């Protein structure tokens, strides 16, 4: 049976770009005019871009029609009729049509990107289209959902999409719809508008168009009306594709597809991966039947920057050569890396090196032999070691390496650098928390902590201690506009405490966990409170005690929290793992700045990178 995604599967990989009047994922208005937009669109070099993509041998390309600003690079009479902008915010020139034709002459299919909602930075468009953000408080807030279906908006938006699809016909081979976050309220209905009518509008001009609905940073089927996973991810190195098909809970299957970015973020430079990394991450998907799409920066003239074009071209050459050698297929060897211990910077200035375990497994049915190459992503070779394995067997190799916070280690087959894995090498700070005498009141704890030296960040003083079986913490924060956001605490005034009881050196296959606590300051309306993030939800923490007060220029907090709330805590270990992140208001109203005490990378999910807080056994205070 033929599937709509057969051509997509055969293409294996492609590229995408955010061509916008502002920048990708922008949430603040940027002044712009229709005249300026049309001048830019008229100068868009579709032939130059098509030549670059053909030189890179991409299997397909995707371009944004528009995003949050409300400026679109193709005319649409339905949109103009509904919104009423004069002059129109849709361009006179149809870049999608022109680019699709140019790419078609070079054998490269084109996909179109469009948000599923109205442009959030165009308030007139949102009002005229009757669009509302699905969380209370408006975009980009998160928290309590409004529960609205937005039927009238959906019918208008489907008409806008249908017009574009009918005009472009078979020249546009697929659609990627962003922001389908409120599926239960808006799309999961037996009657239209729903996912099926949404997909039908996109396929109005080409019944073979492939469609995907993005539910956020995840790689799971979202609707039986879509053909491929949206696959948005910030960490392509963490994906583990095992098959062409992803199967939803309802049994619906769709093409495995991941979309990430080669630059430092969406639509930007500099490049964040070496050519070897981009090649490995692509192979880890396409070898098993999946499809990879890389977002790259694009210039105002419509051409790719030379750095982005060069990396795409190198990637295309490497994939072509691997295909000629018959390497793009599931391998019998599986390479996995585990950071057993981060580099630990001790208080006396000495350093314990990083310890990493490399495991090579034979997951096939025949004996295998070969050699692993170990290198830093800077290109520096670290080691090689041979393996010879019967089916089902594995070989472990322990490596100790010089530290480098944020550096990556790459382990691949020497004969095929498309098979392997990478791991970040962490560096943890070791420090001492004094043990205080047992005290009952937070007032006494505050007094005892004030006698201790502070750990400082700009505008922040922090003091730590251990009282009985609890961590105690005091904070003094300069904050010009104290504004905690209980439904989205990381977006407002707060002290974020990340804690784990993970050992410094890991054993077994247990992944150490981190608990993420938010300490919200006192305001005129609300007392200070502690929240714990559990999955996507927030819960109060009855076991924790928090006092707070406003002071000139900011606020103070004192916390007592049981150490048993840190996952993996063992009273006999003599340490815990910590990071503190402070978000405070600075400068213009609403402008916030986040700073971390120990500069841990992704501390909310990555216990090995947290600082090592040794608890002093002597009584103080």
Write the layout of secondary structure elements.
Layout: H1 6-11, E1 13-17, H2 34-42, H3 46-55, E2 61-64, H4 77-83, H5 95-104, E3 110-115, H6 123-128, H7 151-168, E4 172-178, H8 183-186, H9 195-202, E5 210-213, E6 245-247, E7 253-255, E8 257-261, H10 275-286, E9 291-295, H11 306-324, E10 333-341, E11 343-345, E12 351-352, E13 354-362, E14 368-376, E15 381-389, E16 394-401, E17 407-413, E18 416-425, E19 427-436, H12 442-450, E20 455-457, E21 460-467, E22 470-478, E23 494-500, E24 515-520, E25 529-534, E26 537-540, E27 545-551, E28 554-562, E29 575-585, E30 592-596, E31 611-620
Helix pairs in contact: 3-5, 4-7, 7-9, 10-11
Description:
This protein is an alpha/beta fold and 621 residues long. The protein has three domains: 6-324, TIM Barrel, CATH 3.20.20; 333-425, Sandwich (Immunoglobulin-like); 428-620, Immunoglobulin-like (Sandwich), CATH 2.60.40. It is 19% helix and 33% strand. The strands form five sheets. It has a 15-stranded mixed beta sheet that branches. A seven-stranded parallel beta sheet has the order 5-4-3-2-1-9-8. It has a four-stranded antiparallel beta sheet with strand order 15-14-17-18. The protein is globular.
Q: In a nutshell, what does this entry contain?
A:
The chain is of the alpha/beta class and 621 residues long. Helices cover 19% and strands 33% of the residues.
Helix percent reads 10-25%
By CATH, the topology of the largest domain is TIM Barrel
How far is the first residue's CA from the last residue's CA? 76 Å
Low-pLDDT stretches: none
**What's the total count of β strands?**
31
Please, what is the oligomeric state? single chain
CATH level-4 homologous superfamily of the largest domain: Glycosidases
CATH class label of the largest domain? Alpha Beta
Biggest pleated sheet = 15 strands, mixed
Mean pLDDT: 92
Which structural category fits the helices and strands?
Answer: alpha/beta
Note the beta-strand portion: 25-35%
Shape: globular
């Amino acid at each position: 049976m033929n599937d709509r995604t057969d051509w997509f599967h055969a293409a294996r990989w492609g590229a995408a770009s955010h061509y916008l009047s502002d920048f990708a994922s922008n949430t603040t208005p940027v002044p712009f005019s229709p005249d300026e937009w049309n001048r830019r669109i008229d100068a868009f070099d579709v032939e130059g871009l098509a030549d670059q993509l053909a030189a890179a041998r991409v299997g397909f390309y995707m371009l944004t029609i528009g995003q949050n600003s409300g400026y679109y690079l193709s005319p649409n009479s339905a949109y103009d009729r509904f919104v009423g902008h004069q002059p129109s915010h849709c361009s006179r020139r149809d870049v999608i049509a022109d680019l699709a034709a140019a790419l078609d002459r070079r054998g490269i299919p084109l996909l179109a990107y469009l948000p599923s909602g109205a442009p959030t930075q165009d308030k007139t468009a949102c009002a005229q289209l009757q669009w509302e953000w699905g969380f209370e408080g408006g975009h980009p807030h998160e928290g309590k959902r409004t529960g609205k279906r937005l039927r009238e908006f959906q019918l208008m938006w489907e008409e806008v999409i249908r017009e574009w699809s009918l005009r472009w016909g078979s020249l546009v081979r697929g659609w990627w719809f962003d922001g389908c976050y409120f599926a239960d309220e808006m799309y999961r209905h037996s009657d239209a508008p729903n996912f099926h009518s949404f997909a039908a509008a996109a396929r109005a001009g080409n019944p073979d168009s492939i469609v995907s609905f993005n539910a956020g940073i995840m790689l799971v089927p979202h609707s039986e009306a879509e053909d491929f996973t949206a696959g948005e991810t910030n960490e392509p190195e963490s994906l583990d594709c095992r098959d062409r098909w992803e199967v939803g809970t309802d049994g619906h299957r769709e093409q495995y597809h991941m979309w990430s970015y080669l630059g430092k973020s969406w639509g930007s430079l500099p490049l964040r991966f070496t050519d070897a990394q981009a090649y490995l991450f692509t192979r880890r998907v396409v070898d098993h039947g999946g499809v990879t799409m890389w977002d790259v920066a694009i210039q105002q003239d419509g051409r790719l920057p030379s750095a982005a074009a060069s990396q795409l071209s190198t990637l295309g050459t490497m994939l072509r050569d691997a295909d000629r050698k018959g390497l793009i297929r599931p391998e019998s060897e599986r390479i996995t890396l585990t950071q057993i211990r981060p580099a630990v910077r001790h208080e006396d200035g000495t350093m314990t090196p990083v310890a990493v375990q490399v495991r090579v497994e034979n997951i096939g049915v025949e004996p295998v032999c070969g050699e692993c190459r170990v290198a830093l992503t800077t290109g520096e070779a670290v080691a090689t070691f041979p393996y010879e394995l019967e089916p089902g067997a594995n070989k472990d190799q322990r490596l100790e390496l010089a530290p480098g916070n944020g550096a990556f280690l790459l382990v691949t087959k020497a004969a095929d650098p498309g098979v392997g894995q990478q791991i970040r090498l962490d560096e943890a700070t070791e420090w001492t928390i004094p043990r205080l005498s047992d005290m009952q009141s937070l007032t006494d704890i505050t007094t005892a902590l004030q006698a201790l030296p502070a750990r400082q960040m700009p505008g922040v003083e922090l003091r730590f201690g251990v009282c009985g079986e609890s961590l105690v913490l005091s904070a003094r924060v300069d904050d010009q506009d104290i504004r905690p956001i209980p439904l989205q605490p990381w977006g407002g005034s707060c002290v974020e405490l990340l804690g784990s009881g993970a050992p410094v050196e890991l054993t077994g296959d247990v992944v150490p966990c981190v608990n993420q606590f938010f300490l919200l300051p006192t305001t005129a309306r609300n007392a200070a409170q502690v929240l714990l993030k559990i999955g996507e939800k927030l819960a109060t923490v009855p076991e924790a005690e928090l006092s707070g007060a406003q002071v000139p220029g900011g606020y103070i907090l004192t916390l007592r929290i049981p150490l048993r709330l840190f996952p993996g805590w063992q009273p006999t270990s003599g340490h815990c793992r910590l990071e503190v992140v402070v978000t405070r208001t600075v400068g213009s109203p609403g402008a916030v700045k986040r700073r971390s005490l120990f500069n841990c990378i992704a501390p909310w999910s990555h216990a090995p990178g947290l600082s090592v807080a040794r608890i002093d056994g002597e009584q103080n205070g």
